[in-house]
Amino acid sequence: MHRKLTLSLLTLTVLAFGKMTSRAQDAEEAANWHTRYNPAVKEAKETNRKLLIVFTASTWVDICKVFEKDILDQVDFHGPVSREYVLLKLEYPRENRMERQIATEYQLLKDAYRVRGFPTVIVTDTEGRPFG
Fold it and tell me: Is this model's pTM higher than 0.85 or not?
C-alpha cells in the first residue's frame, strides 16, 4: 500500500511538469543529484527552483531500492523534475561509514525534517522550508 501511494504521488508529480525533453538531455540531467544540503540550497536560491529532498537507505531498505530503481533512476522522472527542483539525495547507510562531518549534517537534517522512515521525500521552497 505504502509503495503504491509513493509511486502514485511521484507519477502525478512527473505528469504535472508536462512535456519531456530528449532522452540524451534527460540522461545528462540525471547526474545532477546533490548529496550536501548547503550547495543544494544555494543552487535553489540562485536558480529560483524549489528543493526536492530524498532521504533514503537504499543499501539496506528494500523499498528504497525499489523506489530508486523504479522512480528516481528513471529519466522520465528526473528529467522533468530537475527543471523545477534542485535534487538532493541523502543516503543513510546501515553501517555509518561516512565522514564524521557529513554524518552529523545528515543526522541534523533527518531530525530537522522529522524523518521517521525511509524513503521520505520532502519538497521545500528555495530556503529549505517544507511545504505543507
Answer: no
